[in-house]
Structures are given as C-alpha cells and as structure tokens.
Design a protein that fits this description.
Number of helices: 16
Oligomer: single chain
Strand order of the largest sheet: 3-2-1-4-5-10-9-8-7-6
Distance between the termini: 13 Å
C-alpha cells in the first residue's frame, strides 16, 4: 500500500484539520477522489455515491487502508476547502516531474482558463493557468491567478514549478512580456510568444519587417520554389513552410514565415532576452462555401523553421485540453465555490485526465469519455490505470 511517486509526492500535503477529530487519512481521501473522477464522477455528490458502493470500497482497500470506512460528503468537501492550494499545486508539479521527462526541444504550452461555475455573485470564477507537455500530452503544472492580479503575475510562478531545460515554451499574447521571456531563458528553455496589440510597437515592427520591399521579393521567390508540404524552404534570412489539415468538412491551410534577419530591430533585441527571430503565420480556412483568412505574429528565441512551425501548431493542445475539461469533466458547470475547493478540484481533475490519457495501449481507441466509462464498469481496467500512473 501507498507505494509509488504519487503517494510520496502528496503525503507531504499539510493536514490543517483538528487532529483529535481526524478519522480519515488525507492521502486516502485524495486517492478516493482521484479514483472516482477517473471513473466518471464530476461533482462531490457523485464522488460520495461512488464511494458508497460496496464493490468500490472493496477495490479501494487494495491500495489504501480505510481504517474508519469511507469519508462522508461533508468530510471530503471540508478537507479540500482547507488544503493549501499552492502546496497542492506544487505537489502535483513535483509528481509530474518524477513521471514525465520532456524530450529535447519539446513543446510546453501555457494558457489560462476560468472555471465559470465557481463564480459566486460579485466573486469571479477561479482562473487557472496550466502547462501541457506535447510529447506526453499531459498537464505538468497549474497555478491559480490571484483575483487582484492576472496571468502575467501567475505565469512566472508556474514556470518556477516546471522542469523546462531544452524545451520550447509557447504562450499566447497575454504572456508576451519581457519578464516572462527572461524567466523562460533562466529556466534553460526557448520561447515562441504570440504578439498582439498589448505589444503594439513590437507588432508594428514585425508587420513592417514582412512588408518591406526586399522581404516581399524574398517571399515571392519562396512561393515560387514551393512544391512540397511540410518541407521548409529558404534559409536563416527567410524560411517558409506550408501545411494543410482536413477534418469534419473543414480545410485549413497554414503558411509559416520565419526570419532571423532582425539586426535592424535594435531596441527589441536589447529588450527581449535571446531574441533570435520573428514569425508570421497566415491561416486560410474553408468550411463549405465560407472562407476566412487571418494572420498572426510571433517572436522567438529559436533558430529553426521546423521548431517554429511545431511550436505554433502544437499550442492548440492546451486549448484542446480546456475543451475536454469543459465537455467531458463538466468544468464550467461545476458549482464548487467555497474557499480553496475550486482550485483544488482543478488539480484533481487534471490528475484524473492525465491518468486516462496516459493509457495509449489497452483502450487506446476509446475517447477520454469512453475510457472513463470503461473504468467505472471494469475494475481490471481501473486497476490498470492506477498501476500505470500511481505505482511507478
């Protein structure tokens, strides 16, 4: 019992309950809730119903003691309302460092999401910033944004939790800040940051770079050379790569441009640590008869077109994760509001999501929803998920 990195990582969580009245071990309750969420539960009441089933109690005793039976709904809710969320988040990130080692030049994407169901009157919903590792498709850390600040303040705290050496960090325009670029470089990583109106001067410089007469001639020349998708054309002065994606009646064509010829951007090179190039991506989308085109701009510390394309393209993974949390885990519908429970529930759901996604063999063809359903009905499969994730 209690073997593996999961239990070792979370056993240090401080139990703030009045010790003379504690009947249920904190680590037991954490494991119970995670197991219930893996098995399809999204709300505290559903978790309680799951624990009341005799078959589930028998299964739980293979991994935890349950010396005083299963905890009540109020006990579960009260515990997660007082667990220090910052410590809980650090334990989660520490555990993920033990089980996930990003590959060299791996993509780590960072983005925020508001848990809308946790809003209460004038109180805004908990806003959580998460990081996902592309090679494993797993969430490797999260922090809550303080109500009086924003993502700009929270992202450096999240970066401090993560092992990023040799990775490429991608963040949308909110994270395009000099201090965040500095922090990424200090972590031994590179960055690709989207540039929008919050960096108006920088955005204007990048637009001017690609509109320059000499650059326009280079662009036309590379378009003439283009023959093969996903193959980079050009050199450090200007490189181009094109992709086409099909699916569900949608055709999306992307053209990536990246130049390291930025010697003229004297102020930007001075202000943005390790700045190596600027990029432009044009998306042409066709859905039936409707066609749209949009252009995005980026800065990067990378020196390779393939890495630029990989970084921009794979940032969608974190948006996909947010969609799964909303649709499958009913994140926005969850009405958990009191104290620190919403933030701690966000960690629990990400642990459960990671556990399900890590199965790439036994039920690889099933969706996340399908795997959760299977775990709720097939104890052998639930055993497999637990041993795959928690017993290492």
């Amino acid at each position: 019992m209690y073997e593996g990195h999961f239990f070792k990582s979370f056993e240090i969580v401080e139990d703030l309950r009045e010790q003379g009245k504690v009947k249920h071990r904190l680590l037991d309750i954490v494991f119970i809730v995670v197991s219930a969420v893996i098995s399809g539960c999204n709300e505290w009441k559903e978790i309680k119903w799951w624990t009341e089933l005799e078959v589930n109690q028998k299964w739980l005793r293979k991994y935890i003691e349950l010396s005083n039976g299963v905890p009540s709904l109020s006990t579960i809710g009260r515990l997660f309302n007082i667990i220090a969320p910052a410590q809980f988040e650090k334990c989660f990130a520490s555990w993920m460092q033990d089980v996930v080692r990003p590959e060299d030049q791996d993509i780590v994407s960072i983005d925020g999401k508001t848990m809308r169901g946790s809003a209460d009157g004038d109180k805004k919903g908990a806003h959580i910033v998460s990081a996902i590792c592309r090679s494993h498709s797993l969430v490797i850390g999260q922090v809550k944004v303080n109500e009086k600040t924003n993502e700009i303040k929270a992202i450096p705290d999240l970066l401090d939790m993560l092992y990023l050496k040799g990775c490429i960090v991608t963040i949308d325009a909110m994270g395009c800040q000099k201090a965040i670029a500095d922090k990424i470089v200090e972590c031994g990583a590179d960055y690709v940051l989207q540039v929008k109106g919050n960096q108006e001067g920088l955005q204007s410089d990048i637009k001017a770079c690609f509109a320059d007469k000499e650059m326009a001639e280079r662009i036309d020349a590379l378009r003439g050379e283009f023959k093969e998708l996903k193959k980079p054309y050009g050199d450090a002065g200007l490189a181009m790569l094109r992709t086409i994606d099909f699916g569900h009646g949608r055709i999306e064509k992307r053209t990536y441009w990246y130049t390291q010829d930025i010697g003229w951007m004297l102020d930007a090179k001075k202000d943005w640590r390790k700045l190596a190039g600027v990029g432009m991506v044009t998306r042409d989308v066709e859905i039936g008869d409707r066609k749209t085109t949009d252009t995005s701009y980026f800065i990067g510390s990378i020196k390779d077109m393939r890495n630029f394309e990989k970084a921009v393209r794979n940032h969608w993974q974190i948006e996909s994760m947010h969609w799964v949390l909303d649709v499958v885990y009913k994140d926005d519908a969850n009405r958990t509001r009191k104290g620190t429970a919403p933030q701690n529930m966000a960690v629990l759901k990400k642990i459960a999501l990671n556990a399900i996604k890590k199965d790439t063999k036994k039920a690889a063809k099933l969706s996340v929803k399908g795997k959760r359903f299977k775990a709720s009905r097939d104890m052998d499969y639930l055993d497999y998920i637990v041993r795959l994730n928690f017993m290492d």
